[in-house]
Design brief:
6-stranded mixed β-sheet
Length: 143
């Protein structure tokens, strides 16, 4: 049975993990934030011409976050972040450019290694736009 958080995003895809044996079920407070995150992802989908968005990482329990080497303060643990791709729209850089040029409210938008987009919500709504490259770290703006 699929639990829909919004029209196009399910709880199952927002909590999927390859970290077998680790509990990744969100507590009730996080579930409410995941619903809000899914609503923002609906706005992103609309912005991208209603092309399907594929979630690569949504909610991460503290144990899953540690296992994948996530930041100790990761918005993923609060249900306020998603990593994704939208191949039918374009590259992660093209997706980031479209989001950055929009009026969408977000905290962080990161083009990660040319492989995926990280969209962080909540927090300060800084609209911080970054690029991350292995061995180089974070740089302001999009490369």
């Amino acid at each position: 049975m699929t639990t829909w958080l919004s029209a196009h995003f399910s709880l199952e895809e927002m909590t999927a993990t390859q970290q077998r044996g680790l509990d990744n079920r969100p507590p009730p407070a996080v579930l409410a934030r995941l619903r809000a995150t899914a609503q923002v992802l609906e706005q992103v989908r609309t912005l991208l011409g209603d092309k399907p968005i594929l979630i690569t990482s949504g909610y991460r329990s503290p144990a899953v976050n540690r296992a994948v080497g996530g930041s100790a303060s990761s918005a993923h643990m609060r249900g306020e972040a998603a990593d994704f791709i939208c191949p039918r729209f374009g590259s992660p850089l093209a997706v980031c450019r479209a989001i950055a040029a929009s009026d969408l409210a977000f905290d962080q938008l990161i083009e990660e290694a040319g492989a995926w987009v990280h969209l962080g919500l909540g927090g300060h709504w800084r609209r911080e736009v970054l690029t991350w490259r292995p061995g180089q770290g974070y740089a302001r703006g999009l490369s």
